[in-house]
Amino acid sequence: DININKEQGRTCRVQNRCGVIKLSNFLKNLKPKQRASLEGTAFAPLLSLPKLMVSQSLMYDLLQRWCVEKKTFQLGGKYVEFSLSDIALILGLRVVDAGGTSLAQKSKKYDILKRIFEGKKIIKQRDVEAALRKYHGDDHLEEHTRLALVYIMMTLLFPNSGTSIKSSYVALVKDLSKFNSMAWGKFVHEKLVESLCHASVQLKRDCTVEESSRVLCRRSSSETGRQKSVILQGCTVAIQ
Question: InterPro entries attached here (predicted)?
Fold first, then answer.
């Protein structure tokens, strides 16, 4: 087994952007009507997720054990699958698409993109937070719900290093009926597996395991002048 200790954490670390606590703080400030509206969407199961910190050392350990070729974890000489069923069990999201929609499909233009986000192709988290404050009133309940769904996507389900989201994702909230029929669990799984593969390759390339099972970066902080880190994107709370 690979021993991840404090010294190794200071030398080479794994970062993630899965904002479970940020989302929890957002949800607790919702008005009853706003929460009830979200409970009527596909993301309803996420409203009751426990407020957890994602463990940096655990993510490090899991990346060392991720087999890119088989897309599974290798533990004690055995391969342990990370499946759609795991996502369904942990997050409670649909893993079978009832409408045949995928994230790769181009969505039609949505007026919210022009009206609220000024036609931006990449929308920052601060843009969504500002819009949520603006549309916080009871007379904007439907708009607030759509914005909250976007916020959940960018903070919990598909977080990235740039804390942003593509406008094509935002356009998906226009038709809530279709939105609720989409296989969000499947999309989360795909993005997370893709990120596990990328981050695992990067970590194994930049770090070396010595005979003593001590993990160190090939380029130490003294050589680079800063701490080496690998960013694991996606909904990492699902593998914790």
Answer: AminoTfrase-like_pln_mobile
